[in-house]
Amino acid sequence: ADDDDTSDDDDTSDDDDSSAPVSRCDELPNLSEVEPNDDAASAQEVTEEYDEGFCLQGEITCGDFAYDDVDLLRFSLPRDREVRLLVEWSGDSDVDGYLWVAEDFQLNGSGFLIGWQNGESSPEVGSDLVVADVDHLIQVACYQGAGGAYTVEATWDPLSEGDDDDSADDDDSADDDDSA
């Protein structure tokens, strides 16, 4: 329900007039975070292929200007795709979401594809290319605050019938519908 008649009231928690991204987690397969998943070797594995994405729901503990708790989820896609991450949380916390090529993962490193956004307001949104058949990691961590529940929505557009990737110029006219 809307909390007032203005479109710039700065209260995105309980109104319908904000420009905050809309979560699709009620439409997507939902995964629950499973511990241990604090390092690349113990990252939770996504074992199924999903057409348009998935949601991860979990709990995170915050550090005191440090990542005391890290949740990692490993996945790969059969085709190159532009992947969008939407990280949402409740409470006054600085929760950060990252997307990594798994072999490049380094806690507190800088080689990520999607990185943290400064501040304690939910959500964080980012997108980047995920290369086919390469393991990627989604990292959730809390830098400061109270911690609590979070949701990560990882989405991509479905491929058209006969399409082999997301690009309009992939130069493979033999098996797709997106080249001239």
Oligomer category: single chain
Number of helices: 0
* Rg estimate, integer Å: 18 Å
Task: Provide the β-strand percentage band.
Answer: 25-35%
Describe the structure.
By secondary structure, this protein is an all-beta fold. The chain contains no helices and 9 strands. The strands form 2 sheets. The chain has a 5-stranded mixed sheet with strand order 1-3-9-5-7, with no helix packed on it. The protein has a 4-stranded mixed sheet with strand order 2-4-8-6, with no helix packed on it. The model has no long low-confidence stretch (mean pLDDT 84).
Please outline the helices and strands.
Elements: E1 30-32, E2 44-45, E3 53-60, E4 70-75, E5 81-89, E6 93-101, E7 124-130, E8 136-145, E9 148-155
Parallel strand pairs: 1-3, 2-4
Antiparallel strand pairs: 3-9, 4-8, 5-7, 5-9, 6-8
Quick recap of the structure?
The chain is mainly β and 180 residues long.
Which short descriptors sum up this protein?
single chain; 180 residues; mainly beta; five-stranded mixed β-sheet; four-stranded mixed β-sheet; 0% helix; globular
